[in-house]
Design a protein that fits this description.
about 270 residues, 8-stranded mixed sheet, two-stranded antiparallel ribbon, S-formylglutathione hydrolase FrmB, Mycobacterial_A85_antigen, Esterase-like, globular, acyltransferase activity, transferring groups other than amino-acyl groups, AB_hydrolase_fold
Length: about 270
């Protein structure tokens, strides 16, 4: 089942859209007997899935097979609208738009109230592509007690101020000369990496990290740096580089399929009461 909800977000000071995939009974379920498990009190494992720059909450539905994957593997998928915020709080403008507060606090509270989602750490995951990988990594770093696994596709945490100018230039068509600027935005002194190191040294529970990138992606150097830093700090990092792919939807659909089939510790079934 695919639903698009709209509600007034206190964190964003505006109405916002969230697209939700909820597993529903299928013919395959009937053949295997799984349809008998759809009873009151049934809950689902949950994937919070963040879109990239210049996109919105409909991207994954429009450009990947995420709805089919959610149905097949019995996972609820929550896709918020992050605009071009990098999922960071924006304090400028007439009213503040606190995208980090929204995605880290308000979004899960609202969705867990409205939908039958498991709240257990082992049933909760986050993923994102490009700009969404930045948001997913921040959720993973700050949410070791909430997220079991994070999947970062074609990106990682960045110095968002340093990344904005080259990201805008890339959107206007100048990729090669801006790629180094994006690579330089992943550094040990960036707040997210300082926090990742601090939390690991303090012995806090750490989210498992899966990173994947195409060999022809302009963000590959940045992804390599992020991978090496997180590994150095003691995070469990699984990395896969796929030859022949760039910053493209064919790669992200392939990555999502791998996430559902291999990388995420899924039950592949509903959670009975």
């Amino acid at each position: 089942m695919l639903a698009r909800i709209n509600f007034l977000s206190e964190a964003l000071s505006m109405q916002t859209n969230v697209t939700v995939c909820l597993p529903s009974a299928s013919f395959a379920d009937k053949m295997t007997g799984k349809n008998e498990s759809y009873v009151p009190g049934t809950r689902f494992q949950t994937l919070y899935l963040l879109h990239g720059g210049f996109g919105d909450d409909s991207d994954y539905v429009n450009f990947t097979n995420v709805t089919r994957y959610a149905d097949e593997h019995k996972v609820a998928v929550i896709m918020p609208n992050g605009y071009n915020s990098f999922y960071e709080n924006q304090e400028t403008g007439a009213l503040p738009a606190k995208f980090w507060d929204f995605v880290s606090d308000e979004l899960p509270r609202v969705c867990q109230t409205m939908f039958p989602l498991s709240t257990e750490r082992d049933d909760t995951f986050v993923a994102g592509l490009s700009m969404g990988a930045h948001g997913a990594m921040k959720l993973a770093v700050h949410g070791g007690d909430r997220f079991h696994t994070a999947v970062l596709m074609s990106g990682a945490g960045m110095d968002t101020q340093a990344a904005r100018e080259p990201a805008t230039a890339i959107a206007e068509g100048g990729i090669d000369e801006q790629a180094q600027g994006l690579a330089n935005s992943v550094r040990p002194d960036v707040a997210m990496y300082r926090e990742a190191k601090q939390f690991a040294e303090e012995g806090k529970r750490l989210t498992d990290i899966v990173m994947t990138c195409g060999s022809d992606d302009f963000l590959l150097p940045a992804v390599h740096t992020a991978r090496d830093l997180l590994t150095e700090y003691g995070y469990s990092v699984t990395y896969e580089e796929v030859p022949g792919f760039g910053h493209e939807w064919d790669f992200w659909d392939l990555s999502l399929r791998r996430a559902f089939e291999e990388w995420l510790p899924l039950r592949h079934d509903v959670i009975l009461p």
